Automatic annotation (TrEMBL):
GO process terms (BP): peptide transport
Full protein name: ABC transporter substrate-binding protein
Family: Belongs to the bacterial solute-binding protein 5 family.
Superkingdom per UniProt: Bacteria
Entry keywords, A to Z: Signal, Transport
Species in which this protein is naturally found: Microvirga brassicacearum
Molecular function via GO: peptide transmembrane transporter activity
Signal peptide stretch: 1-23
Subcellular location: Periplasm
Family matches, as Pfam families: SBP_bac_5 (PF00496)
SUPFAM superfamilies noted in UniProt: Periplasmic binding protein-like II
Length: 505
C-alpha cells in the first residue's frame, strides 16, 4: 500500500482544515531586507513569542534558539560529551553535593561581573516558576554560594543528571532576572545581546563587545518569522534572508540544485511520536496499542514521505541521545493487528480521534492522513483533529484527547530529559503509569556512574517500546538551507542552530 494510494483515500477527510496564510507576499521591513556585510538574516520556522527561558518557555525551542546566543550555561554538550563553559571545573565531595568553580573575569554584556549569585538566582527562578524544566531539579535541597566564584548544589538523593540539566540553564544577572521588562531585551555573558524584540515577528541581536571568549565575526543576527515554507524559500532566493531550517522533505528538492544556496541535512535529537491516552479506553489495553502499531507500514511511510530526511526509529528516543538503545521493530502485519484487536475485545475495530498541532512538524498532515488510512484498513475509524497550537497544547496538558501526533526534542542530549520528564507516573503526560518503569527511571536519574545510567535507560526504553505507550516511527533530520556566502555553520543535533562561529563573505 503506497502513500499515493492512501492519500487519495483520505483527501475528503481534510477538506475543512484551514491553512495558514502564505507569507510569501509579506513585505520584509527595510531594516531586515537590507543586509549589512556581517548581519545574518535568519527566518525561523516557528515564531519567537518570548525571550524568557526561565518559566513557561524554558523548553520552548524558538525561545531557546535565540537566547542560547545570549545566556550561557556552566557546561555545554559538544560532540556528545559535557565540557566546561562558564564553570572551569567541578567535583563531587559526596553523592549529594556538586561544587562548581566559575571561570574568573567573565562579565555580562553591561560590564558587570558574573558571580555565583547570578548562577543561584538563575536556578532559583527555574525552580520557583514551576515551568517545564522545574522537574529536572526536584531533588535540589539547597543552593549555596560559598564565595563569588563557587557554586554548590546539595540534593536530597544522588542525581546523575546534574551536568546535562545544567546545559539548559543560561545564566542571567541576578539583579535583573525577576524584572519582566528585562526580557524584552535580555543580555547575559554570551557573544550577542538583544537589541530589539517584537514578539512573533522579529528579534535583532547585536555583538556583545564585552564577550569573554572569541568575538563573533557577525555584527548582528536578525530572526524573522515567515510561517509559510514557500515564503522562506522565496526570501532565500531573492536574497532577503541568509539562513533558514526546518524545511519539509518535499521542499528539499526544490532548493538543493540552486547554485546560490547550500542545503545541509543532519541527524538530531528529534523524533516523531504518537501518544495514546493510556488512561482512556480502548487504549488502556496494551494489545490495542500494539495492534495500531502493527497496522502501519512505517518503512513505506519513511520511503514515500521522508526520503533522506528521517530514519526508522529504533527506540522511543533517537539513537544520538545518551541512554538510547536498539529495540525490536514492530513488523507491518495486518493479520496480527486484527488478532490483537479481537483478543482485546474489538474484533470489528472501534472509533477514536487523533489530534495534532497545525504548527507542529514536517509533513504532519500528510503523515496523519496516511496513518488514518492504514488504521481504517483494520477497522479503526479515526477522526482527524488539526488544531491551533495553543488549543492543542491546552488539550494535551489536560489529557483531553484520545491520541496525538507530534514531535519531540531531547534538548539536553540525555535520555532523562525525555524518558523521566515525560514517562514517570507523576508526570501525567499520557495517562500511562507503571511502577516498574518509575523504579528504573528514578534509579537511572540517581546513578552517578554514567555507564550504569545508560544501561538503566536502555531498560526503560525497552519497556516503553514493548508496552506501546505510543508509536515511535521516525528519528528526524533537520535541513538547514543558507546562501552560499554564509561560512562556518556547524550543525547542532538539538536542532537549534548556533551562529557565533558563522561569517558572511
Amino acid at each position: 500500500m503506497t502513500i499515493l494510494h492512501l492519500h487519495r483515500q483520505s483527501l475528503g477527510m481534510f477538506a475543512g482544515l484551514t491553512i495558514a496564510a502564505s507569507a510569501a507576499s509579506m513585505p520584509l521591513s527595510g531594516a531586515f531586507a537590507q543586509s549589512a556585510a556581517q548581519t545574518l538574516r535568519v527566518a525561523n520556522p516557528v515564531a519567537v513569542v518570548s525571550l524568557d527561558p526561565f518559566g513557561a518557555k524554558a523548553a520552548d525551542q524558538p525561545t531557546l534558539t535565540v537566547t542560547q546566543e545570549v545566556l550561557e550555561p556552566l557546561v555545554m554538550r559538544r560532540d556528545g560529551a559535557i565540557h566546561p563553559w562558564l564553570a572551569e571545573r567541578w567535583e563531587n565531595p559526596d553523592n549529594l553535593t556538586w561544587i562548581f568553580h566559575l571561570k574568573s573575569g567573565i562579565q555580562f554584556a553591561d560590564g558587570s561581573p558574573m558571580t555565583s549569585a547570578d548562577v543561584k538566582a538563575s536556578l532559583d527562578r527555574v525552580i520557583a516558576e514551576k515551568g517545564p524544566l522545574a522537574g529536572l531539579w526536584a531533588a535540589v535541597e539547597a543552593i549555596e554560594t560559598p564565595d563569588a566564584q563557587t557554586f554548590k548544589i546539595k540534593t536530597t538523593q544522588p542525581v546523575g543528571t546534574i551536568l546535562s540539566n545544567l546545559t539548559m540553564l543560561g545564566i542571567a544577572p541576578a539583579a535583573k532576572i525577576r524584572d519582566p521588562n528585562f526580557f524584552s531585551a535580555p543580555y547575559g555573558t554570551g557573544p550577542f545581546k538583544v537589541a530589539s524584540f517584537t514578539a512573533g515577528q522579529l528579534v535583532r541581536l547585536v555583538r556583545n563587545e564585552n564577550y569573554w571568549g572569541e568575538k563573533p565575526k557577525l555584527s548582528q543576527i536578525e530572526y524573522r518569522y515567515i510561517p509559510e515554507v514557500s515564503g522562506r524559500i522565496t526570501a532565500l532566493e531573492n536574497n532577503e534572508i541568509d539562513f533558514t531550517w526546518g524545511l519539509p522533505p518535499d521542499q528539499i528538492d526544490q532548493v538543493k540544485d540552486s547554485k546560490s544556496l547550500t542545503v545541509e541535512s543532519f541527524p538530531t535529537y528529534s523524533n516523531y511520536y504518537m501518544w495514546f491516552n493510556n488512561s482512556r479506553k480502548p487504549f488502556t489495553d496494551a494489545r490495542v496499542r500494539q495492534a495500531m502499531w502493527h497496522a502501519v507500514d512505517l518503512a513505506q511511510i519513511q520511503k514515500d514521505l521522508f526520503p533522506g530526511t528521517a530514519s526508522l526509529a529504533k527506540g522511543p528516543i533517537p539513537q544520538a541521545v545518551f541512554g538510547s538503545s536498539v529495540q525490536t521493530p514492530y513488523a507491518y502485519d495486518v493479520a496480527k493487528a486484527k488478532k490483537l484487536l479481537a483478543d482485546a475485545g474489538y474484533p470489528n475495530g472501534f472509533e477514536t480521534a487523533m489530534m495534532w498541532s497545525s504548527q507542529c512538524c514536517a509533513a504532519v498532515r500528510e503523515f496523519a492522513e496516511t496513518l488514518v488510512s492504514y488504521w481504517a484498513a483494520v477497522g479503526i475509524k479515526v477522526t482527524p483533529q488539526e488544531l491551533e497550537r495553543a488549543t492543542w497544547l491546552d488539550r494535551l496538558l489536560k489529557l483531553d484527547w484520545d491520541s496525538t501526533l507530534t514531535d519531540g526534542n531531547t534538548l539536553t542530549g540525555d535520555a532523562d530529559f525525555t524518558l523521566a520528564r515525560l514517562y514517570l507516573s507523576s508526570a501525567k503526560r499520557m495517562g500511562y503509569a507503571n511502577p516498574k518503569l518509575d523504579e528504573i527511571l528514578l534509579a537511572a536519574r540517581a546513578e552517578l556512574d554514567q555507564a550504569k545510567r545508560s544501561e538503566l535507560y536502555a531498560s526503560a526504553g525497552r519497556l516503553i517500546w514493548d508496552e506501546a505507550v505510543g508509536i515511535f516511527p521516525l528519528d528526524m533530520m533537520v535541513h538547514a538551507v543558507y546562501r552560499s556566502n554564509v561560512k562556518g555553520f556547524k550543525p547542532t543535533p538539538n536542532a537549534m542552530p548556533r551562529f557565533e562561529n558563522v561569517s558572511k563573505d
